[in-house]
Amino acid sequence: MNWFTTQKSSDRPVRPDEVHMWFTLMNSGEVTAEDKAEFAAWRLENPGLYERYKTLEKKWDMAKDVIPPMPPGLAEVEAGSMKYSKVLAALAACLMIFFFVRPTDAPAPSPHTAYQTAISQIDRVNLEDGSRVLLNARSDMKVAMSTLRRDITLNEGEALFSVAHDKHRPFVVKARNGEVQAIGTEFNVDIRNDFVHVVVLEGVVKVTRYDENGENPNVLIARAGEEISYGGAHPGKSEKIALKTVAEPAEAVAWQEGKLIFNGDKLQDVVEEIGRYTNTPISIADESLKELSLYGIFNARDTEGILAAISSALPVTIEHRGEEIILLRKKAVA
């Protein structure tokens, strides 16, 4: 009996290699009309096996550009029966070619694991490779690990990364239109007002920024005690990637101890930072106030205390309007 002859699953055993046998036959170049009819009947009777067949077909399509064509005659059909040994030989040849020729820089997609933190919440994440991540409040991160890469995507917020050394698997953090690559290092990535700030505490990182089309990479290397900043990609704009020395790198990660240290930070950045620790929306009504600088060390969860300091140090009036806080320019005294 032809192993491919359609029968109900209750009437016959299912061969473990049945899907591969059909795949080999249908790609052999020697398919008869009878084969096609039997294949059509087989896939209707075996929808589960046919799904596996389609998966195998997709993998073959991805690899066919680098795999030589299957020589004709590898699968032979004789009057409704298949020479089983030759089919398996053909299958083995195909699979060996597929696995040995498949490019090593194209790993199979790895499922993402998502992490989010709420307002005023700081979360510690231990990754499977031994790396550690401290995720600041109001942050959103996705992690995908494979045998070739360690891919992290920071969609919003801030995170401190302590990376386990693995020279065979680059550790890459994607933030906005750029990425940070490190091997055995510690660095902080902060997204604020559509700008990304990378501060290196230990080791070396490579930061690459792309334009709005994901092209024209701009690359800088940062070492311990240095910071790289770059702006988001917007049509018509050309924000540059910049490198500078940081006098006190530890200030960038004071948030892990519940502190916010502002050393000449712009008021718009200060407002976004404290917004990670309060449910109350805070906005700046006067555009001219956004560029003002603030200095000081504050309790991250003492929103009212920080606002009081802003009002005392800067020409700013704090107004509570319903469930919102507005920063206005302080009126001059007549």
UniProtKB/TrEMBL annotation:
Transmembrane segments: none annotated. It holds the Pfam family FecR_C. InterPro entries: FecR, FecR_C, FecR_N, Ferrdict_sens_TM. Residues 21-47 form the FecR N-terminal domain. It comes from the Bacteria. Residues 259-327 form the Protein FecR C-terminal domain. One of its GO terms (molecular function) is sigma factor antagonist activity. Residues 115-206 form the FecR protein domain. This is Iron dicitrate transport regulator FecR. It comes from Paremcibacter congregatus.
